Amino acid sequence: MGDPVQLKDEGNKHFQAGDIDKAIECYSSAIKVCPDKKMLAVIYRNRSACYLKKEKYNNAASDASKAIDVDAADIKALYRRCQALEKLGKLDMAFKDVQRCATLEPKNRTFLETLRRLGAEIQAKLKTTFSTDSRVQNMFDILLDDEMGKENKEKAANNLIVLAREDAGAERIFQNNGVPLLLNLIATGKPEMILAAVRTLSGMCTGHKARAMAILHMVGVDKLCSVMAIDDEEIALAACNLFQCINDSLTGGDKREYGKEEALVLDASKDLKTILLSLLEMVASKKVSGHGRDQALNLLSKNVPRKIRKEKDNSRTLFTIDHGLKKILKVCGQVPELPDQLPLTENTQLIASVLLNKLYDDLTCDPERANFKDICDEYIKSKIDPKDMDKTIHAVNTISGLLQGPFDVGNALVGHQGIMEMMVALCGSERDVDQMVAVEALIHSSSKMSRASFFITNGVSLLKDIYKKTKNERIKIRALVGLCKLGSAGGDDYSLRQFAEGSTEKLAKQCRKWLCNPQIDTKTRKWAIEGLAYLTNDADVKDDFVEDELALKAMFELAKSKDKTILYAVACTLINCTNSYDKKEIIPELVQLAKFSKQHVPEQHPKDKKDFIEQRVKRLLKAGVTSALAVMVKADNSILTEQTKEMLARVFLALSENPRDRGTIVAEGGGKALIPLALEGTEAGKVKASHALAKIASISNPEIAFPGERVYEVIRPLVSLLHTDRDGKQNYEALRGLTNLAGFSEKLRVKIVKESALPDIESYMFEQHDQLRQAATECMCNLVTCKEVQERFLQDGNDRLKLLVLLCGEDDEGLQTAAAGALAMLTAVQKKLCTKLTTVTLQWLEILQRLCLHHNPQIQHRGIVIVYNMLNSDDSELAKKLIESEMLEILSVIGKAEDSPKRQEALDAARACLVKAMDLGLIKPFTNTS
Q1: Within a domain: residue 155?
Q2: For the whole model, what pTM was predicted?
Q3: Where does the record place the UNC-45/Cro1/She4 central domain (predicted)?
Q4: Do residues 352 and 401 lie in contact, with contact meaning Cβ atoms separated by under 8 Å?
């Protein structure tokens, strides 16, 4: 046990010496052993001073309070608590403490000054607070006043939304009875009022767990669901965003430390479960609009399956399957042509299929997958009823939905006894709706070669029969798509044509005819594109299609329509037309071996050669493919699956192959559209999109290609292409893109450095491949004006500067230009590097002389600038060494040469060097004695 007085004195000594941590340690030890209350108060007061120094204001205030508890007139403790409270933002409490200090010592200037300052700050804060409160109240008064003009209401609504996006503003609305008032806005039933209220609530819930939870309880999940169920696309989307904001805040989007309040907001699992169950109820409810159902499915798709597969917990998926799988299957099975169906949009059933696929993919073992299949099987069996045709076609439509989602599950169901026979029987039904549903199911079930081969032998005659006999255009087009699909079963293998010569061209011609007919509804015309997606595997078909500008423009217009179920078919068609799918490398030796062993050898169509592909790309660009792709990229995230994103990225890459076409892509918004594709999706898709971005970034003005803040988002995808697992072409394009961006602004250079690109760029400067080495050196040349890059060259123990000097001595002029440019800029801004340059290699002077004598004016100018920088480096020995060498003669010869526009920069630089040498007293001016 130590002596408290001795420990206190030791603490005082440490405090005076500036060793605050030691002082705290001594005072803390003294507190543990001090029995005297008055002595204890002094020690607490002293430790409070230490915590103030350490900026631990909560601790400082707590210790000062303990001293004041013993002696209410302890003026030092009062003032220290005042200082701590002020730093914590508790101005009113700090004001009370300093007021007490001023009462005890009325003439103390420090107390009076603090009192005056805190008083002014409190008044300003109150003014702001009352001003904000009154503004909030005023906004609500305007919005709830029926006689107020529309313009004033819109302005008030926008102000409220903007205010809610700031944390302080959101808190003022919340504290100022804002939630009940927002509920009053919703109760008006006016769409613009509901939108304003929902968007304000979204702002209030973003990034604040406690407030999000409070708002959820005040508004209620049922109320939020009822708002999302309204038949208004904008309101449904806004309500979906509100749910997402709440979910993000409750599941970790809020990083605040709440202290003791944490216990009140810690467990959000019950609320999250309530939201999940409510969304599942919405999925199959007749009271929910099509737009509301879409957003409920989207929320489930985004938040239920695991985002990171490494996480082991997929309990939300299992819960959703147990409590909602049948409801999702019900949505897939809806047949809008029948009475008493759920309200749907054009996209609802595809969104449901995508959700089914994501749920199935999130399962981790065979028993979980077996349970999923069993529920689906049980549901289909419960709906098949020979006496009730409506129930039966519902079952068939559900299978179609599964075939578009988890294909394996749908395929297994099709294989069950009686299902295929039932689909064939429905094709012969007298009801159009039966035929239509059955044909669609047949088309979806033939997505795999094995299934297609079954239909080639059993279904072609059936589909041909339907196609010839039906008078219903909607059925006719679906039967045609079935035939298209069967006709393309061989892919792009010219030798595996399923139908007779010319048959696929006839089918494609009919598809184009339907596609261009505006009298036919969008959903039916969509099937024409579906047919072309299969038929364009044939090079004759794709060549005819891209020559038909009207058909191309019709497809692009449909791609921009509200019906986003069309996206996949459009993407497939474009992939085929640009030949941007993965191609297997044909090794001649293996081809010979296959022929010898009488195995099938794939053949390339003559129109699939490079010249034909380039012509097709030009026609697609002329028809406006880029603007269509830009609209497609903005589609709802659930419909724009990762596979579709990858296909769009592949098309963009094919379009940007020719540098002369990149301007067209930029002008139609292609640069902006590529950024999300490069940041999200499959690994292959991200690489393809990044490569296309690199091609555009390498030759475009970044301000035009990527307007605003988007340009900073381009850098990360380009840096990702520098990794060694990417191919040389991708490395090269990325380096060229980064070179262009680095030459544009200091902010972009700093961003490139922050993305840790420097080590990769430096490694390519050592590359044996000439083009890669030159591209990397050019990139470094544009980066050296950045302070952080200069510091890397200043560091000891590396070969960065040596490499640049040696690259200046290479034979490749492009490489020399870049290396000499980098060296010229570095020696201009960092004088230490001028001296360091002479120590990195014995060849430095020889290399420098070669630069100054170079026949290329650019390289010569850069070399002479390096010499000037060395003369100007404040290193008199270095300057003397240069002038005593042959460099003086070289500079003199260049300086005396006649002026020439081509070499003027080099001449002026040489003359500047000679003037500098004269200023340093190393040479004397020439004088004429005559």
Answers
A1: no
A2: 0.73
A3: 298-486
A4: yes
Look at residues 636, 653, 477, 683 and name the one whose alpha carbon lies nearest to residue 580.
Answer: 653
Tokens 């009140």 correspond to: 264
pLDDT in tens, 304-329: 998 887 788 899 999 999 999 999 99
The alpha carbon of residue 572 and the mean position of all alpha carbons in its chain are separated, in whole angstroms, by 24
Whether residue 641 is contained in a domain is answered as no
Higher pLDDT, 787 or 590: 787
How many structural domains is the chain composed of? 2
The range of the structural domain enclosing residue 91 comes to 4-130
Of 554, 581, 608, at which residue does a domain stop? 581
pLDDT-based confidence at 266, cuts 50/70/90? low
Amino acid of residue 530: E
CA distance 229 to 221: 12
Residue 424, SS3 per DSSP: helix
SS3 of 270-332: the string is HHHHHHHHHHHHHHCCCCCCHHHHHHHHHHHHHHCCCCCCCCCCCHHHHHHHHHHHHHHHHHH
Q: Is residue 59 part of a domain?
A: yes
CATH number of the domain where residue 12 is located: 1.25.40.10
With b meaning 16 or more CB within 10 Å and e meaning fewer, what string describes 9-36?
ebbeebbeeeebebbbbbbebbbeebee
Q: Is the pLDDT of residue 638 over 80?
A: no
Q: Which two tokens stand for residue 106?
A: 């009325």
Which tokens go with 467? 């196609």
Does residue 67 form part of some domain? yes
Cα angle value 744/750/756 (rounded, 5°): 120
Residue 162's H or E segment, with its range, is helix 150-165
Q: What is the pLDDT of residues 169-193, one digit of tens each?
A: 888 888 888 898 889 889 989 899 8
CA dist 907 → 847, 862, 885, 912 (Å): 19, 11, 19, 9
